[in-house]
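Shape is hard to put into words, and the shape of a protein is harder than most. The fold becomes a row of whole numbers, each drawn from a learned catalogue of backbone shapes. The outcome of that step, for a single protein, is printed below.
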Amino acid sequence: MTHLSRGWRGPLLSASTYVGAVVAVNVGFSLAPDLDWLWSLVVGGVLVLRDAAQRHWGHGVLGWMALAAVLSYRLGNPSVALASATAFMVSETVDWVAYTTTHRPFADRVWRSSLASAPVDTATFLHLAQIWSWHLFVIGVLSKASVGCLIAVVLHRQRRGG
């Protein structure tokens, strides 16, 4: 393996994991919308994966976001995928802004950007999918924020060495 190929392994892994997770959530919700609680948990992780991809790709992560949206639309139920992809694009943009403008350690940026994007993602999706309810909104936001918090805590502990 050349030095160049080793240097691309992390960035490509972060981008492909992020894109794959977005597509999996969108297609998963298209196939099994009754598992909305599960997809909400996975979305919490996806928001963090976007932060990890941005560490490698900078503003280029916006291109990966667009690719994930197009693939989601093509592979899932078009109306559900459109609602989900739109929610992802809107909330991921909020997440991107919060992550980019917060000049703090990575774990703090993950936590803050997840807090900012979770309600936007949930509200946008529920509205566009025409399944709005306060109950689903609260479940969605709490599950996404909980995953973001958990991942931020793990990252913070890793940074401290234990």
User: Anything to note?
Assistant: The mean pLDDT is 83. The chain is about 85% helix and 0% strand. Residues 3-31 form the longest helix (29 residues).
